[in-house]
Amino acid sequence: MATELKKKYGLLTAICMVVGIVVGSGVFFKAEAILKVTGGNLKLGILAWIIGGIIMIICAYTFSIMATKYEKVNGVVDYAEAAVGEKYAYLVGWFLTTIYYPTLTMALAWLSAQFTLIVFNQPIPDKSALTFALAGFYLIGSYAMNALSPIIAGKFQVSTTFIKLIPLSLMAIVGTIYGLTSENGCTVENFANAVSPDVLTSLGIDAPASNFAAILSAVCATVFAYEGWIIATSINAEIKDAKKNLPRALVIGAFIIVAIYVFYYVGLAGAIPNAEMMAGGQAGAKTAFATVFGKFMGTGIFVFVIISCLGTLNGLMLGCTRGLYSLSSRGRGPAPHIFATVDKNTNMPSNSSIFGLLLCSAWLLFFYFVLTGGRDNGHILGSFAFDPTEIPIVTIYPFYIPIFFKMMLDKNFKGFNRFVAPLLAVAGSAFMVFAAIRAHGPTIPGYLIIFAIVMLIGIAFMKKKDISESKA
Description:
- This protein has one domain: Amino acid/polyamine transporter I, CATH 1.20.1740.10.
- Helix content is 71%, strand content 0%.
- The protein has helices spanning 11-22, 26-37, 42-67, 75-83, 86-119, 129-148, 150-181, 187-192, 197-202, 211-226, 242-269, 274-280, 284-293, 295-320, 323-328, 336-339, 350-372, 391-394, 396-407, 415-440, 444-460.
- Helix 2 packs across helix 12 and helix 4 (75-83) runs antiparallel to helix 5 (86-119).
């Protein structure tokens, strides 16, 4: 066994990592959710996509500044260590490994399974045992690809990135044209009028208390759609000329993502009325594609949506499998001499990969109970029934804030890069936290208890150990 990863990914793969991890899942998952929290107000929804995108771009740019200086084994952990210190970096890495990576990854497996079943017209697939069984299958398949052949996984990431742009681009272009020129087009109507309160009531949706409240909830919903770009930094030790290529990938990828999301959302609005999109749930996107392209072709294009989600799952698993390795390579965490090893045949941290798969499976089981535990007579999980597709993801932003503040004290950075960019990133991160508290207030305490328990377990393994005697 070895303890070092080889340089094997170029700029194109790095950009595809950023775009591929983010694009292709949340935009389908959260489109109708954002319509619901804004009361069917398309303009507020677009504003939320733009605000969430701006925050992502600012944070990505700020981290790209750090990426020009530091290159080790896990970007964000490296930056936390350089800016704040080794122990803080360990806590960031532990959170990423045990909560952030696995919750994102299991959510993508669940989405991939759900969209697969939608193609076969399965009823209410989001809560079914079949969905979660298929999600488990997708998790294992993605793990196997990354663990046994990382080169194939990298090529799969590049190919699926381009494939996933097909349905998004088609809907953005053709959907907009259809919405503006067809007699059945909905663009003007959807932009001009929000869904009426009576229709919202009939759909079982509460009208937002105010436009401000709607924006906060909608921006919080976009966090799942936009998040994941930071995982691309987990392979910076494997990117050729990482100090140049990783910053380029972060910034270029972020702008591509925002443009794709906004134009897709506009195109979607041209296909079907907002109320119909909201009523359709996750199947709403399929209905929109069938409306614009016809039932047969629309279903065929929707298959690309599934491929898109699987590509995102692959990128997330690529980061997830390296989580514990990034800690163990620093001599911290449980049994670092075991989890810091790299298989000489596959050049993958095999033990870390298995641990990541087990964590994804555990969070998938938790999510199953969240969705099926009931609400009318109390939830089976009680106050611990929080949404693992949003709250854990937002938690990364408080971890960013000390890093951004410390950047302003680093004299190696100058002018805009030293003061303005980190300060804007702090403001964006704080806004995300505020939005999450407003949107998920009642379930935040339960999540914080679980978060505290997980972090305390991590602290128990914080002490640094010597791994120099790990066998090759």
